[in-house]
Amino acid sequence: MDIEDFLTAEEAEDIAMRVVTLRHLWVDRNDVFYTLGASAYIDDGFVYQSLAVAYNPIIVKYFASLIGKVSERFPDCTTYQDIMLPSFHILGSKCNGHQASIHRDLSYEKLFGKEIDEHLSFTVPISIPECGAGLNIIEGEYVPYEVGKIYMHSGQETHQIAQRGDMADSEFRITLQGHIATVNGVPYLYF
After folding, report:
1. Where are the alpha helices (DSSP H) in the chain?
2. 8-state DSSP, 171
3. Rounded to whole angstroms, what are the CA distances from 32 to 42, 74, 178?
4. Is there a contact between 25 and 69 (Cβ–Cβ < 8 Å)?
5. CATH superfamily, with its number, for domain 2-190
6. Which of 53, 120, 149, 176 is deepest in the core (most CB within 10 A)?
């Protein structure tokens, strides 16, 4: 796992406030957590493309500087209107008592097929609840998150969202999520 500084605390706080302000646009995922737009690991085909076309302009409008930073960090990536830009996972107190799925990041298979050159997953913690947040790597490692850092890994190690305790009703765990799938030498940025 590679970890780098990415956002200042002030930038992250501003982004978190904008995400919460857009609560009326959150996509409810089984009444436990939310995304702001499409997610390739959840949405299929037409639903994914429709949400991406609807939400990409919202992401660009409200988070242009953040997407700009992502583009600066990964300058060779290609994007398309019907492929969701990096966007947000939002967890609140509704997820208390729930365990996230144990998985590998294989959502690229839905968009690009199984044959890709390489894959990268990244997470930028925007807001962390008092109880903490991180990533469980199933081989035994817990990676605690810090607001503003970017955490990058292949996505091929089995992992899960780490809940370290219960969140208060007023708290949110907000992360920017993104992936890069390189297909025939072309890196595609998506969520």
Report:
1. 9-21, 45-73, 108-112
2. -
3. 14, 31, 20
4. no
5. q2cbj1_9rhob like domain (2.60.120.620)
6. 176
Q: In which residue are the tokens 């089984």 written?
A: 30
- Beta strand 141-144 with 133-137 is antiparallel
pLDDT tier at 140, thresholds 50, 70, 90: confident
Query: How far apart are alpha carbons 144 and 140 in whole angstroms?
Result: 13
Q: Is 71 exposed, middle or buried (0-12, 13-18, 19+ CB in 10 A)?
A: middle
Question: What global pTM score does this model have?
Answer: 0.95
Give CA torsion, residues 21, 27, 33, 39, to 10 deg.
-120
Tokens 């595609």, located at residue:
188
pLDDT tens digit sequence for 92-110: 998 887 777 788 899 999 9
Q: Residue 103: its pLDDT value, please? A: 82
